[in-house]
C-alpha cells in the first residue's frame, strides 16, 4: 500500500517544496487539494496541469487522489437550489475530474462538508446533489478514475454521515465509477461497527478503494486520545491487508501538532512502523 500526504498540511510551501519534503520524509505521493495548485484550479490550462504533474513526478512521487474539491473557486455548493450556482458547481466538478486525470490520479474524494449541507428543502437538495454526483462520476469513469463519496461526521455536515448512507446513495445513482472511501476521524465518530469490520466487508465487496488516516480528535494517525481507541489504525491496517486492499493510505490530519511538517513527518514514521509490525506479526 502506498502512503500519500494530503498536501494542504504543508501550506504555504510551493509545490516543489512540498514534493521535496514528502519524498524526504518517506511518502510515496501526494493527495492533492486543488486549491493548493491555483486560486481557481478549474481554470488551469493543460500546460499548467502538465507542469504540476512534471514537478511531482520529477521528485519520484505520484498523485494518488484529489480531495477538498469544492473549496475553490469560491461560491460552489453541491446542494444549492440556485440554478446559476448549480451550473457553476457542475462545470467545476467536471473540470476537477479532468484535472485529476491530467495529474494522473486514480481516485477523487468528495468531502467538502461546508459546500454540501442540506437546508430547508432537503429532498430537493438531495436530488440536486445526486445529479451532480452522477455527472461527475460518469466523467470520472471515462477517465478510469474512482469517484468516492466521503461520509462526514454530523458535527460538520448533515448530509451523508455514515458509510452505509453513502453506499445506499451510490446504489441509487448506479454509476460504476462511484465508490466508497473511509476517513478514520469521521468513521470513528459515526460508525457503530469497528473500522476493521467496515474495511473487511466493503473491500471484499469491491466498494472501498481509498483510506484517509487521522484520529478522531482531528490530529494525525497515532495522535488520538487513547492508543486503543476506536481510531486506532493497527486493527484497520490489519483488516485492509487481510482483505487484499490495494489502494492508497492518505495521511490527512486537520489539526497540525506541533505544526504541519512535524505532524506529517511523525505520521509517516508511525504508519510505516505499524505496517512493519503487522508484517512480522501473526495474521
TrEMBL record:
Gene3D superfamilies found in the cross-reference section: Divalent-metal-dependent TIM barrel enzymes
UniProt KW Translocase keyword: no
The entry's keywords: Isomerase
Top-level division of the source organism's lineage: Bacteria
All residue ranges annotated as the Xylose isomerase-like TIM barrel domain in the record: 20-261
Protein name, as recorded: Sugar phosphate isomerase/epimerase
The keyword Isomerase belongs to this UniProt entry's keyword annotation: yes
PANTHER family: HYDROXYPYRUVATE ISOMERASE, XYLOSE ISOMERASE-LIKE TIM BARREL DOMAIN-CONTAINING PROTEIN
Pfam families reported for this sequence: AP_endonuc_2
Signal sequence coordinates: none
A Gene Ontology molecular function term of the record: isomerase activity
The organism of origin for this protein: Chelativorans salis
Amino acid at each position: 500500500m502506498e502512503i500519500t500526504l494530503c498536501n494542504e498540511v504543508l501550506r504555504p510551501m510551493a509545490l516543489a517544496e512540498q514534493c521535496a519534503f514528502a519524498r524526504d520524509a518517506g511518502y510515496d505521493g501526494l493527495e492533492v487539494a486543488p486549491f493548493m495548485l491555483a486560486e481557481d484550479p478549474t481554470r488551469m490550462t493543460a500546460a499548467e496541469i502538465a507542469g504540476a504533474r512534471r514537478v511531482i513526478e520529477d521528485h519520484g512521487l505520484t498523485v494518488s487522489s484529489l480531495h477538498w474539491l469544492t473549496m475553490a473557486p469560491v461560491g460552489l455548493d453541491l446542494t444549492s437550489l440556485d440554478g446559476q450556482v448549480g451550473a457553476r458547481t457542475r462545470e467545476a466538478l467536471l473540470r476537477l475530474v479532468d484535472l485529476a486525470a491530467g495529474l494522473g490520479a486514480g481516485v477523487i474524494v468528495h468531502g467538502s462538508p461546508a459546500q454540501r449541507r442540506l437546508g430547508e428543502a432537503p429532498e430537493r437538495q438531495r436530488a440536486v446533489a445526486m445529479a451532480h454526483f452522477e455527472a461527475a462520476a460518469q466523467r470520472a469513469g471515462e477517465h478510469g478514475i474512482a469517484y468516492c463519496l466521503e461520509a462526514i461526521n454530523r458535527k460538520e455536515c448533515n448530509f451523508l454521515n455514515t458509510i452505509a448512507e453513502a453506499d445506499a446513495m451510490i446504489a441509487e445513482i448506479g454509476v460504476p465509477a462511484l465508490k466508497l472511501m473511509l476517513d478514520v476521524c469521521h468513521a470513528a465518530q459515526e460508525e457503530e461497527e469497528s473500522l476493521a469490520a467496515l474495511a473487511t466487508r466493503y473491500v471484499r465487496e469491491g466498494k472501498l478503494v481509498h483510506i484517509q488516516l487521522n484520529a478522531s480528535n482531528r490530529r494525525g494517525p497515532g495522535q488520538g486520545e487513547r492508543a486503543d481507541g476506536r481510531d486506532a489504525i493497527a486493527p484497520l491496517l490489519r483488516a485492509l491487508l487481510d482483505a487484499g486492499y490495494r489502494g492508497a493510505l492518505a495521511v490527512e490530519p486537520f489539526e497540525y501538532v506541533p505544526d504541519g511538517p512535524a505532524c506529517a513527518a511523525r505520521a509517516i514514521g508511525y504508519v510505516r512502523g505499524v505496517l512493519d509490525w503487522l508484517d512480522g506479526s501473526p495474521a
